[in-house]
Design the sequence.
């Protein structure tokens, strides 16, 4: 396509005063043949314009087809001890950098392994699919399946990945607690 356009440009650009020609083309595009409202009635090319002849002036240039965003999926685990829910601080870079969120897992096996480590191998993984929701980032959609698991206080509970600060967050303190929460964590705590 690019080669074809270069070929047209070479054929159409006059050898004398090509700079003036280019300036006229740019002015024409900026002032007369604008994208949404071409002023065909004053256009010096209207007699020869194929788009006008076909009444398709606003069809060009084509809009780029919208790129479909990929969809990712995570289970988000909310270990609940009374009104408190276990959270950890996410790494400084990446999504929700430095904010508190819930342990998340890409697969059920990873979630199960994590629960096994906490001695919760018999936990009831009864997912409420009505709670499944989508959070959209600029580059992808994230489908989130929350799982609320009532447990007692777990002293050895840890973030799913790496060593990060952790806390048991009182869901009643969303507005007053100064801890930075990810938008999704806030929503989930509010829905709790
Ligand atoms: S006649 Fe053609 S080139 Fe001129 S403004 Fe209309 S669409 Fe653009």
Sequence:
């Amino acid at each position: 396509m690019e080669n074809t356009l270069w070929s047209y440009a070479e054929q159409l650009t006059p050898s004398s005063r090509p700079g003036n020609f280019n300036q006229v083309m740019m002015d024409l595009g900026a002032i007369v043949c604008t994208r949404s409202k071409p002023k065909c009635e004053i256009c010096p090319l209207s007699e020869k314009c194929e788009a006008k002849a076909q009444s398709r002036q606003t069809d060009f240039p084509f809009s780029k087809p919208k790129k479909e965003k990929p969809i990712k999926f995570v289970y988000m685990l909310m270990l609940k001890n009374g009104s408190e829910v276990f959270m950890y601080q996410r790494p400084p870079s990446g999504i929700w950098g430095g904010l508190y969120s819930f342990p998340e897992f890409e697969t059920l096996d990873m979630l199960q392994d994590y629960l096994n480590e906490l001695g919760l191998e018999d936990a009831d993984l009864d997912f409420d699919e009505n709670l499944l929701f989508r959070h959209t980032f600029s580059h992808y959609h994230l489908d989130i399946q929350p799982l609320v698991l009532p447990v007692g206080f777990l002293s050895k509970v840890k973030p799913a990945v790496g060593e990060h600060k952790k806390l048991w967050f009182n869901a009643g303190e969303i507005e007053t607690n100064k801890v930075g929460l990810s938008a999704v964590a806030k929503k989930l705590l509010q829905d709790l």
User: Anything to note?
Assistant: The pocket of iron/sulfur cluster is lined by residues 32-33, 38-40, 43, 45-46, 49, 51-52, 57 (CB under 6 Å). The chain is about 25% helix and 20% strand. Helices lie at 2-12, 18-32, 50-53, 108-117, 183-191. The CA atoms of residues 6 and 12 lie 10 Å apart.
